[in-house]
Design a protein that fits this description.
heterodimer; A: Rossmann fold; 8 helices; globular; B: mainly alpha; MetI-like fold; 15 helices; about 85% helix
Amino acid sequence: MGVLDVRSVVKIYPGHGAGDDPVKALADVSFTVRENEFCSILGHSGCGKTTLLNIMAGFDAATLGEITLDGRPIGKPGWERAMIFQDYALFPWLTVLGNVGFGLDMKRVPAAEREAIAKRQIALVGLNGFEHRYPHQLSGGMRQRVAIARALAVDPSVLLMDEPFAALDAQNRSMLQDEMVRIFMEQRKTMVLVTHSIEEAIKLSDRIIVMTRRPGRVKADIEVRMSRPRAEEDPEFVALKARIRDLIHDEFDLSEAPAAAAATR
Amino acid sequence: MSELATARATGALSPEELAALHAQHRPPGLFQRAARLVGLLLFFGLWELMSVVILPRIDPNLVTLMPPPTSVLAGAWELIQSGDLFKHFKASLQREAVAFLYASAAIPIGIVMGWSRTAQHLLEPVFEMLRPIPPIAWIPLAILWFGISDLQNQFIIFLGIFFPLLINTIAGVKNVEPNLIRAARCLGASELDVLVRVVFRAALPQIVTGVRVGLGVGWMALVAAELVGATSGLGWLISDARSVLRTDIILVGMISIGLAGLLIDQGLRWVAKKLLPWSLAMTR
């Protein structure tokens, strides 16, 4: 369960006006996320990593190629591919309990069972005692915890995360990253994280897909075999960080020479 | 609020600090409150003086046109005791309520128009053509259609409520955070779930705004409709009082119309506060 296969995905956006050229966001992207693997997609803004995630979720469709989950092509959005958003996207009119129970309600889980599952997930993200608060009464970090609990409550085959910690301050970000590592070790499942932070990717992932600049393609596919939790001071961590930074900087230089980029196309 | 803040911080504050705090953030002074009262008293005092002393000196008949506040009060008491005021009050409110029930069709129509491009393209031209016509302009036609009746009044009020409600509902739906809809979809919500459980809920604060604006416009339309096409209601009351030169009753009616409008709006605000605590907290 939870094998996500990305096969030769191309995404082209049509130009808006008549003189507007179509934009190629993704050019032939292929990789496979294995069962219970934590996979990060790392790249500059505008490299199409969020586009790729949106296609995985079913919010957008690939122009060419396809993505399958456990062998079945991805269609409309569904609970088996729950998503965590950068801006939390909590329902402001529902309490924490209501938000976390929302997906279970959609799955028509009976009320008693729904509440039990929701409470378990709320406890898992450390929000005991906040069940009846509304999102506007919580801090950014707490809101994202609610969003994590809400996504996990429906027990998805794969959890998709779109820069989930980018809107948080440094302290909260680092705390939530640690929390995510703990949650991943407690509730093993396939997770896909889109990020532009190298540290975040190394801290969390089993595997890092480094993307090129637009049009995005896979630049490198790196396995991270360090044991968790990972310390940023660890020499292995530092070395990997340098390696990935070089890969990304490389990419930066390339974009400044359009002729070279065109030649590789 | 300031008391709450004080209570929270008191433990750490010295008497001097507390005194300084109070000196800086005084509650609204007695003086300011007194000033408001003085303004009102002056207004009514001048009015009384005008009607009782100055106008009769110019022409004794002028008092009939501008009765003093004391006669207005007496007129109000008379109408309250006879039960007439309550009767007309009830007739008007009832019309507004019935018309609102019909006009609330604007909510589902607005949701569909805000949600589906096709529905919007289909319906918008018609509504945009009808919308600029003031409800009052429909009165002559409505009298021919429905006669001097409740139905005629309700129709005019309906027009007053419908369009503000429709436009606010459409805007509310269009302003729904797209990620809320995405979040609901990837949690397994069906299209109907998305519309009812997310889009409607997220648009509700703006729908309530539409209801408030609509009921206000409807109330204005109601008075106009009753002035010319009714045999009861506050609008009719003042029109009827005019024909017998009872200016005190006209003024009582006018004040009642204003009070009722205020009452409706305050009531709605109260309901919105109770039902949508999250939306008020967000706009604060």
